Amino acid sequence: MSIEKQIGEWFTHFHAHPEISWKEVETTKKIAEILTDMNVQHLTFDDVTGVVAEIGEGDRIIAVRADIDALWQEVDGVFRANHSCGHDANISMVLGALSYLKDKKLGGRIRFIFQPAEEKGNGANSMIERGAVDGVSHLFGVHLRPQEETPFGKISPAIHHGAALFLEGKVKGTDAHGARPQQGKNALDPIFAIAQYIKTIHFSPYEAYSAKLTKVQAGGDSLNIIPGSAVFAMDVRAQSNTVLKELRERIDTGIQSIAKLYDIEIELNWSDYTPAAEVSEEAAAIAKEGIVEAVGKEALAPEIVTSGSDDFHFYTIHRPDLKATMLGVGADLGPGLHHPYMTFNHDALDMGAKALAATLLKATLSE
């Protein structure tokens, strides 16, 4: 069987068997089974899903990461695991790159990190804690890109993801009768104030950033009760880690001022921080050479700047000396990432695998 056809069969399997973050038990078993069949040394863990494999010899170590989890979302009226972010494709492309490389003469070792829980924003940390990037000089990733971002047949040497952070808040006031609002503390009033306040936060127009309410829940079935309690959530993003940090600080300060203004308590919980990309120019240059060599100069796309985020960038936050970049593979992907009915041109899988393999090989030989 050709490697291209094998990549397609792997994708078909992983697409049909999605598993959510931290529950990728069967996915881990399948990857380990494939690696065993390929006679590739690999390691699994007793306390977390995911697989780390390695080929080659020598002191120099290059690594590549594939995320393996699926989303939990509503599809045809039913909530279930669903690979609408393309991680099934990422697994298949990385396994394909391994297939193209395993019998070649390498300039060092190549480590393959099959990482859990990217969608939770902290799966990378689990691999870092277990030594997946110990001794690694260069780290590469790969991800399918939406059709409006990168067309089919094009591959970008770098994805400049933005930073993201989520806020969950709880307003603690006092219920009151609709006819006697003075007897209570309406939880909705400070939430409306928060919605207006975040629109007044401004940075340089050359900086990309956003903050918006994504959930508000208050009140019950009785329409004559002014709700004293409410919960809300916020999605906060910026293209740089520095701007996101300042944005968070200003939101914190503003909300606490609103709490004092309305004489009400507001609890805040920030979670699921995902850092912005710290792209290595050296790694991106190696990726450019690999793309051109594997699929031609006409396939080389510009570097991508996107407001989306990926926990891949925790690797460089924890290891600032790590030279990293993520390849973006154009695949005619639509309607979009995380859409429950996302589809793409499967011919992109082999292209991505070949470009990734050439990039990894060049990285083992670079000075």
What would your notes on this structure say?
The structure is a single chain. Strand 1 and strand 2 (51-56) form a beta hairpin. The chain has helices at 3-16, 25-37, 87-101, 123-129, 188-197, 241-261, 281-295, 314-318, 347-365, and strands at residues 41-44, 51-56, 61-67, 71-75, 78-82, 109-115, 136-146, 155-156, 159-160, 163-172, 176-177, 209-218, 225-226, 229-238, 265-274, 304-305, 323-333. Helices cover 32% and strands 29% of the residues. It has 367 residues and is α/β, with parallel strands linked by helices. It folds into two domains: 3-161 and 277-365, Zn peptidases (Aminopeptidase), CATH 3.40.630.10; 163-274, 2-Layer Sandwich (Alpha-Beta Plaits), CATH 3.30.70. InterPro entries: Amidohydrolase, Bact_exopeptidase_dim_dom, Peptidase_M20, Peptidase_M20_dimer. Its cofactor is Mn(2+). Keywords: Hydrolase, Manganese, Metal-binding.
